[in-house]
Write a sequence for this structure.
């Protein structure tokens, strides 16, 4: 385990600001006008998801990241199913390659995710339903947060625990965690997380709260109820992660989403935009037309999100359009690749980059 670097957000942002003042310019983005600089000027940390394989193989990506974003999050490399597909000691080699790159380049690190019903190894899912379930869950949380203790600014401790369609009280998902350990598993996970890494900010992370669309009112209600229960029981939680996998065809209601953000902030919680990308499935037209739709939609969303001063971190789910989970998750009917991120395949800014830049420039400063 590398030396524990005690890093808190304030020190991290101050360091970032000095980098910004120094310009932090890099090829591809205009000088002081990097997205990272624009975000930092408003007290927002801009980050990107990365995968270990492209980070190891792409020299231009390694050269671009430190000037372009302030922190990284591993896409898969910290997940339970990735590090411990079978019983036995977890293998954090790939995650450490990302953490090591971040530390070597003065970048922060986000942790994703300690507990998730997906990417959950079969052996663990079985154990959670048995007599030993609580110990198995505890050892997972202690192992992954302990491995990166003092090096992670924010952790997604629990991911996607709400699913109204499962018909459980409080809209909780009937996952192996829930069925084996009861609804209290969420609070237990946060308490163990705080004990294991007192310096990390602890987040609950979820999706499907961004739109006026069927089933999302229940999702928002379920997330708020979970957060209220956690706060009421003095559970150590610092924030809500809103994944923000935007879908350009879904109706975005600024007032509705702004109200939801205010309700979360009213609980004394920070908000992180944790997996930002823009899915233009079904949007026809040439690249320029698609990019316009993507940029306009992103700008409307970010203007609302950044108006809430509790929003202090924005992570894109990937850095460039070289790869996106969307291309395997929901291939476009026209066979074209998705363009959901602010840099193109040559790592040059896209119209989405400009929309993000305008949103950061127009956002209020955080105190
Ligand atoms: O790298 C291997 C490759 O060697 C192998 O040939 C291939 C086929 O088995 O699998 C490749 O790994 C895949 C990996 O993505 C590649 O990055 C895994 O099978 C696949 O399960 C994994 O999917 C990830 C998914 O979470 C499940 O962990 C996506 O990349 C990742 O973007 C997605 O991210 C999630 C967030 O964690 C939570 N929010 C939703 C978001 C999108 O689903």
């Amino acid at each position: 385990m590398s030396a524990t670097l005690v890093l808190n957000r304030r020190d991290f942002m101050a360091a970032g600001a000095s980098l910004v003042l120094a310009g932090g310019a890099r090829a591809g983005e205009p000088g002081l006008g990097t997205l990272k600089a624009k975000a930092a000027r408003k007290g927002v940390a801009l980050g990107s998801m990365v995968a270990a394989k492209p980070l190891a193989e792409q020299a231009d990506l390694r050269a671009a990241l430190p000037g372009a974003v302030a922190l990284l999050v591993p896409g898969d490399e910290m997940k339970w199913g990735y590090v411990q597909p079978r019983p036995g000691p977890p293998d954090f080699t790939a995650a450490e390659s990302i953490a090591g790159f971040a530390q070597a380049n003065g970048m922060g690190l986000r942790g994703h995710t300690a507990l998730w019903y997906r990417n959950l190894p079969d052996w663990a899912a079985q154990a959670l339903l048995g007599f030993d379930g609580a110990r198995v869950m505890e050892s997972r949380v202690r192992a992954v947060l302990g491995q990166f203790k003092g090096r992670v600014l924010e952790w997604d401790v629990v991911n996607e625990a709400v699913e109204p369609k499962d018909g459980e009280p409080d809209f909780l998902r009937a996952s192996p965690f829930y069925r084996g350990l009861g609804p209290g598993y969420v609070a237990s996970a946060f308490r163990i997380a705080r004990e294991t890494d007192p310096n990390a900010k602890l987040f609950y992370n979820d999706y499907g709260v961004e739109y006026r669309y069927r089933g999302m009112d229940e999702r928002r209600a379920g997330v708020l109820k979970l957060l209220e229960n956690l706060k009421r029981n003095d559970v150590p939680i610092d924030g809500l992660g809103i994944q923000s996998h935007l879908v350009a065809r879904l109706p975005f209601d600024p007032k509705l989403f702004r109200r939801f953000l205010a309700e979360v902030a009213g609980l004394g919680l920070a908000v992180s935009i944790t997996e930002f990308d823009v899915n233009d499935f079904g949007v026809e037209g040439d690249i320029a037309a698609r990019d316009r739709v993507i940029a306009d939609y992103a700008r409307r969303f970010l203007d609302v999100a950044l108006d809430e001063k509790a929003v202090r971190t924005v992570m894109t789910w990937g850095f460039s359009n070289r790869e996106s989970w969307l291309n395997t998750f929901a291939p476009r009917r026209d066979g074209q690749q998705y363009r959901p991120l602010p840099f193109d395949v040559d790592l040059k800014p896209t119209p989405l980059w400009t929309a993000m830049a305008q949103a950061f420039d127009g956002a209020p400063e955080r105190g």
